[in-house]
Design goal:
The chain starts with a helix and ends with a helix. It contains 14 helices and 14 strands. The chain has helices at about 5-10, 15-40, 75-90, 95-105, 135-150, 155-170, 190-210, 215-230, 250-255, 255-275, 280-290, 320-330, 335-350, 380-400, and strands spanning about 60, 70-75, 120, 125-130, 130, 180, 190, 240, 255, 305, 310-315, 315, 365, 375.
Length: about 400
């Protein structure tokens, strides 16, 4: 992943450094002592002899038991392949075996034409062959990470490149960007799948070191810079019509602070890997999200605000807290360390407690009370990436002091 260390250290590592390190230590205990063992066991689907032969559970009940719906989203399988690839690279003992099984299960979604299905049955048959850009982005992302175990010249890296090629040939729009899905769903264009495709391309380039693997990132950055980011407010639009103009009505006004923070660290990574300066754009995103997207007392990241900063939805999803933490750790703000510490503490004390060990509460309501009906497997991707950024920052400030 990308390293936030220089921003955090430059923001001042003195009296707040020990608090950042302490919350990282708590997070590490939860990650390696509770979460990974749980999701390598209960969170996998299969047999006693091969616990992950049927991939990952789609979601769990609030009691922490597999719900076993009659479908599995490909994005969830891909996210869990990333999780266990990351854990294997960190040396966690069972991770490589789980990643291997998840990889084999994910391959069942690979279509003969080079695309990937959107939904599988529980045992891996294709349930919905639709090519969904969001899912495809996570397939590429997961393959890029698994290739760090398999080797950058192996099948996973080639599949990632082949998938990007298929997207370019089959899903490209004439005025830039890509369809949400094929067949076309007729819905407004969305920035979110493009953001995750940008993330996936950066991950593949980081795996291979081949500048050719960075080519699509340049196109996606141009789309962000010219279409996604509001030229007046600096806000990040979510929904767009033809020509990438803001969608009409409420959708055109809707923005998500979590995605603002997500683009902050993505732009930092893109600059580090490409040399293209993005500090101005990242700064505008950060200032907008900080001013309008954070609850001032709790530092919880709100779910939705308008392009002008009006709060539209005060509830707080877990994923937005993780992306908020990563964004803060990748931006040179004077209060980066205390704010990051508060955000990490929110994750531990508000989302990762009051539920079965190793699991989470996925959303808090307007009053910061739990508002959930299930435990979605997909959230572990956000938790792992947030922990990884926190760990790198804590290592940097610990070395400094």
């Amino acid at each position: 992943m990308t390293g936030p260390a220089r921003h955090v250290v430059s923001a001042g590592a003195g009296e707040h450094a020990s608090a950042l390190v302490a919350v990282r230590d708590r997070f590490a205990d939860w990650m390696f002592g509770q979460a990974l063992p749980f999701w390598a066991d209960v969170g996998c689907d299969g047999t006693a002899d091969d616990p992950a032969c049927l991939g990952a559970q789609e979601y769990l009940t609030l009691a922490g038991q597999p719900a076993r719906p009659p479908f599995k989203r490909v994005r969830v399988q891909a996210r869990q392949l990333f999780v266990f690839s990351w854990a294997a690279l960190r040396g966690w003992p069972q991770a490589a075996a789980r990643a291997d099984c998840l990889y084999r299960f994910l391959l069942r979604a690979h279509r003969p034409d080079g695309g990937w299905a959107r939904l599988l049955t529980r045992d891996g048959a294709v349930l919905d062959p639709t090519a969904d850009l969001y899912d495809l982005a996570f397939v590429v992302f997961a393959l890029a990470w698994y290739a760090r175990i398999q080797g950058p010249s192996g099948q996973a890296a080639e599949l990632a490149r082949g998938t990007l090629g298929w997207i370019g040939r089959s899903m490209a729009l004439p005025d830039g960007g890509f369809y949400n899905s094929l067949p076309d769903d007729g819905q407004p264009r969305q920035q979110n799948p493009h953001m995750h495709l940008f993330e996936a391309v950066l991950a593949l380039h980081r795996t291979t070191g081949d500048d050719a693997d960075l080519a699509l990132a340049h196109e996606l950055y141009t789309l962000f810079h010219t279409r996604f980011q509001d030229p007046v407010t600096g806000a990040l639009g979510e929904y767009f019509g033809p020509g990438w103009q803001p969608a009409g009505g409420e959708r055109g006004e809707w923005t998500e602070p979590g995605h603002h923070f997500e683009w902050v660290w993505l732009l930092q990574a893109y600059t580090a890997q490409s040399g293209v300066p993005t500090h101005e754009q990242a700064g505008r995103l950060y200032r907008f999200a900080r001013a309008h997207g954070l609850e001032p007392v709790t530092a919880l990241v709100r779910d939705g605000v308008s392009r002008t900063g009006t709060v539209l939805k005060r509830s707080a999803r877990l994923w937005a807290q993780g992306e908020g933490l990563r964004g803060v750790l990748n931006h040179p703000a004077p209060d980066a360390i205390p704010l990051a510490t508060a955000m990490a503490t929110n994750l531990l004390d508000r989302y990762l407690t009051g539920c079965p060990a190793g699991t989470w509460i996925d959303q808090l309501d307007d009053h910061a009370d739990p508002a959930v009906e299930r435990i979605p497997t997909s959230s572990l991707y956000h938790i792992v990436t947030a922990y990884d950024a926190l760990d790198m920052a804590a290592r940097a400030v610990d070395d400094r002091v």
